[in-house]
Specification:
By secondary structure, the chain is mainly alpha-helical. It is 67% helix and 8% strand. Strands 1-2 form a two-stranded parallel ribbon. The longest helix has 15 residues.
Length: 48
């Protein structure tokens, strides 16, 4: 199950519902903004 830390919850909530779902499906731990950026970069790279 994915975890989004309270410190980055506000940034996470600005993402589209599709993007949030993709992140949550990955079973990742996002503790800071750098974790969020890393997961977003992985999603972008997979789409190339």
């Amino acid at each position: 199950m994915s975890y989004i830390a309270p410190a980055v919850q506000a940034k996470f909530e600005t993402l589209s519902i599709d993007l949030k779902n993709q992140i949550l499906e990955r079973n990742v731990q996002i503790n800071n903004i750098y974790d969020l950026i890393r997961v977003l970069e992985e999603i972008v790279n997979e789409g190339k």
